[in-house]
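note to self — DONT lose this again. spent like an hour looking for the file last time. sequence + predicted structure for the chain T wanted, 100 res
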Amino acid sequence: MIDAGTIKRLAELSRIELSPAESEKIQKDVGSILDYVSELKNAPVGGIVNDKEHINIMREDSDPHESGGYTDKILAEAPKQNGGYFVVKQIMEEKKRITN
């Protein structure tokens, strides 16, 4: 979990003002994001080849596929979509402020 002091420092660095309620909500949101990312440490990595075998492998960019050729297939795999875009859970609230 991320502490309130870190959220306050990030807000200062970002030059945004946060109310105590906003700060608490962002603390929970960022905490859940960091918890999710930390789960990747436990992800199975079996079958991955040694990176030293694949150093500086280059290929020519010849015969590229046509743009958008796989869009429908990819979107069909998504749990939710709307108008050709993935629909995902909102994780942060957008707030616009004008500062001088």
